[in-house]
Amino acid sequence: MKLNELSPEKGSKKPRKRVGRGVASGHGKTSCRGSKGHNSRSGGGARPGYEGGQMPIHRRLPKRGFTNIFKKQISVINIQDLKIFESGSIVDKSTLVSKGLVKGKNDGIKLLGKGNIDYPLTVKINMASKSAQNKITAAGGNIEVA
Prior knowledge:
Blueprint: H1 57-60, E1 74-78, E2 90-91, H2 93-99, E3 108-112, E4 122-125, E5 127-128, H3 130-138, E6 142-145
């Protein structure tokens, strides 16, 4: 069997139903919608989620939890991620975004202490853990938390 010899199973493909083409089309003058009622009209039909008057599933299921609308979206980077920068360079939000370490939409950037660095960097970010601050200063760099 070859790819060019493949074909659908007999009877599995039906032609598309073309409605609104008149009485002789085989779909009648009402285009398979019936005579009257909401579903026969243009724009008719139940809204999404409507279950015919039955209590909808989204109201039957219990609700739990809470979504804080004031939640801050903090991007996290580690010391080991800063190895792509050269010695003595300044690391801030714009350089982190340009290198692809952080996406642009966030409420702040936090530096964590995973990994090691052995050359000085100047880091200007919003937050940093104590271990990250200690590792940056131990390598001869400085960190500015704003």
